[in-house]
Design brief:
mainly beta; five-stranded mixed beta barrel; three-stranded antiparallel β-sheet; 2 helices; globular
Length: 157
C-alpha cells in the first residue's frame, strides 16, 4: 500500500461555520406562528366540510382539499407515544433550550383529530415521568421568533 496521495484529487474541507441568512415564508400557516409570537396562543385548522381539526395546522384539508379555518385551542393535550432522548444529535434550538434528557412525544391536543410531534421537558432526569396518557400543556419561551421551537410542553400538575 502506497502512502502517496493523488495531488490532483479534489480536496474536501468541511465548512461548519456557514450560516445562510434568508427569509422563509410560513405561507398559509403564518397565523399559527404570529399567534404564538404575539399572543402566546395555539391555533389549529378545521375543515368546515369534513369537520376534522388539524394540528399542526394546514391551509387546506388533506382529506377533502377544502380551505380550512382557524380555531383557537387550549394548548393542553394527552401524550399518545413518547421516547426519552439522552443525546441531542443534530437537534436544533428547542433541544438546546430543553436540555437533556428531553422527551419526544406525539401529543393529541384537546379538540384536535391529529397528533403533534413535539418536545416535552420532563420534571427530572429519571425515565417514566412522561408516558402514554400523560396530560401536558404548552409553555411559551420568553424569546419567540416565529418557529415551532417557540413553545414546548410540560407535564400538567
Amino acid at each position: 500500500m502506497s502512502d502517496t496521495k493523488d495531488m490532483n484529487a479534489p480536496l474536501e474541507v468541511p465548512y461548519t461555520d456557514w450560516k445562510p441568512e434568508y427569509l422563509y415564508s410560513q405561507g398559509e400557516v403564518s397565523r399559527f406562528f404570529r399567534e404564538i409570537v404575539d399572543n402566546k396562543k395555539l391555533y389549529a385548522s378545521r375543515c368546515a366540510k369534513c369537520n376534522l381539526t388539524w394540528m399542526p395546522p394546514r391551509g387546506h384539508c388533506p382529506e377533502c382539499h377544502e380551505t380550512t379555518e382557524w380555531v383557537p385551542i387550549s394548548g393542553e393535550g394527552t401524550v399518545r407515544s413518547a421516547t426519552y432522548c439522552y443525546f441531542a444529535g443534530m437537534a436544533g434550538d428547542l433541544v438546546q433550550h430543553l436540555g437533556l434528557p428531553y422527551v419526544l412525544a406525539l401529543i393529541q391536543l384537546d379538540g384536535c383529530d391529529t397528533y403533534l410531534c413535539h418536545g416535552v421537558k420532563p420534571p427530572g432526569q429519571a425515565m417514566g415521568d412522561i408516558v402514554t396518557g400523560t396530560r401536558v400543556k404548552a409553555v411559551y419561551r420568553e424569546e419567540r421568533r416565529g418557529s415551532i421551537a417557540d413553545f414546548y410542553f410540560v407535564k400538567q400538575s
